[in-house]
């Protein structure tokens, strides 16, 4: 019997090695996935544009301030922080959030997210002014959206009572009640929560805001198979010399986005992939279809990326990647 078990484990490891990417198997529902899920829903609700994973220069610290997302639509500009917690959540006197996992003795403490997102508003407002856009006073607002997970044991949302939250917080219950497919959602709490009765922004300023945030520094983004996303910093390609040479022009100063296309088989030993990449154009959001360039490389070629908030460098085979976006 033990021989059968050992043989089964060996076969499983070999199967996983050849047919799956280890990094993808290790990535569960990540913070990056949560951000893009929230962004997609907000765009449907507001008929606007959400910019995810911004890295705005902070003149006070000389570093870059991470901002989860910024919602831009006619009549509003909102800096949004997404909190994805587990366990029983409480708020301390200093405003920090503490969660105690249902199946863990460890607590997760996060500094006051409302104070933090307000600081991000000031940094973004200063950045926009440096790039020639002075918004009306108070127009750029902020929200903290609580998307705390569900307790599997009791199948109930894990969050504290809404009256404990400051008004800038969109509670877990409020977030769950939104109906993206229903335009009537604007008439309820979301209208007051995001719009605050402000006049609609003039179209020229609205367009300029979109252009600035399109060209603002962000984390690089990997879109992986299985509808998974990962934010981080692209480092380099690894693989055979002729493949890396073919990809030598794909760097952030020249390329904004690349797409991994169909696979063409060459016998049973290996396969090749077509990599389409878009030359960076600071005048527009992207290149036209006629401007896309193409190279063919082995599917075993790897992308090295350091994920956001991690010191570990991950490797991803091109065959596991759908697309990659590079920040300027």
TrEMBL record:
Domain NERD stretches: 30-147
Pfam family, one: NERD
UniProt protein name: NERD domain-containing protein
Organism of this sequence: Actinidia rufa
